[in-house]
Each structure stands twice: as structure tokens, then as C-alpha cells.
Design a protein that fits this description.
With 152 residues, this protein is mainly beta. It has a single domain, classed as Sandwich (Immunoglobulin-like), CATH 2.60.40. 10% of the residues lie in helices and 55% in strands. It is elongated, with a radius of gyration of 18 Å.
């Protein structure tokens, strides 16, 4: 009986760390050391991730964690401009936080960041994407996804 109870508890815990988002990256090299770095998120059925906070999107004050991109410092790399988002933004009441005017993405979204490499040499853009994946039944713990992208 104890083994069954522990199995159920461990099963719930394993579910809570499940990830419903997969990430892909691509790089478009432009002129004069400029790059466009694409972060493509595929979001599992019925799940969503929250819109990042930018000057165009106000902060969430309801418990929902906005998607954030953190870049490791590199003296040769400059983050140029704000993160661009290409996708179908949903607005509405979040079933987990019971508040309106929450902005999120379902199915897929493309995040684009412009980068400048100052010295023209190959570098790696490293960092972390933090996001919260939610649906109408559960809100998973925030997840951190590390990336390392070649800039050649």
C-alpha cells in the first residue's frame, strides 16, 4: 500500500515538471556584423506561455510569469533593440489566475532578437529562456531553458 501511495505521489511530481514547449533556433547573418536570431517555440495542445514584458506590454501582476530572455554578457556582442514577437497573441481571462487581460501565445510563437557582433569573429550567444506553461487545468512550475547559438 505504501509503495502504491509513493508511486502516485511521484507520478504527480513527475507530471508537474513535464514540459509542453519545444525550442528551435536559427540565425540570419546580415551585413556589418549584424544578426537576426530566431527562437521558435512550439507549444503543446491546450497549453500557453505568457507574452514577454516589453515597452509595449505591461507587466503581469497576477502570478503569471512572462517569458523572459536573459543573455550572458559578452563584450563583443550587443543586444540591438527589443525582442520582437511574431505569433497570434491571445487576450482574455486566465483560467489559472482568474484575471482578465492576460496576454499569451498558444500553439507556436517566433521570438526574434537583433544582435551585433563588434569584432567580426565567430562567437556563441548564450543565455536562458524562462517561461511558465499553463492550461485550463494546471499551471506548471516556471521552466528555464538554456541555449548556446553559434554566430559565424
Amino acid at each position: 500500500m505504501f509503495g502504491m501511495l509513493m508511486g502516485l505521489l511521484l507520478g504527480v511530481k513527475a507530471q508537474s515538471v513535464e514540459d509542453h514547449v519545444s525550442w528551435e533556433y536559427s540565425v540570419q547573418k546580415k551585413k556589418n556584423g549584424k544578426y537576426k536570431v530566431n527562437f521558435f517555440a512550439r507549444i503543446g495542445d491546450s497549453y500557453h506561455i505568457y507574452v514577454p514584458i516589453t515597452t509595449l506590454t505591461p507587466p503581469l501582476d497576477n502570478g503569471a510569469l512572462p517569458t523572459t530572455f536573459s543573455f550572458e554578457p559578452d563584450s563583443a556582442i550587443t543586444i540591438n533593440g527589443e525582442l520582437e514577437m511574431v505569433g497570434n497573441i491571445q487576450n482574455g481571462v486566465d483560467p489559472q489566475f482568474f484575471v482578465g487581460n492576460v496576454r499569451y501565445y498558444t500553439e507556436k510563437v517566433l521570438f526574434v532578437q537583433n544582435i551585433i557582433v563588434k569584432d567580426g569573429a565567430p562567437h556563441k550567444l548564450k543565455g536562458t529562456i524562462e517561461y511558465m506553461c499553463t492550461n485550463s487545468v494546471e499551471c506548471l512550475r516556471p521552466k528555464k531553458h538554456e541555449f548556446s547559438i553559434d554566430l559565424k
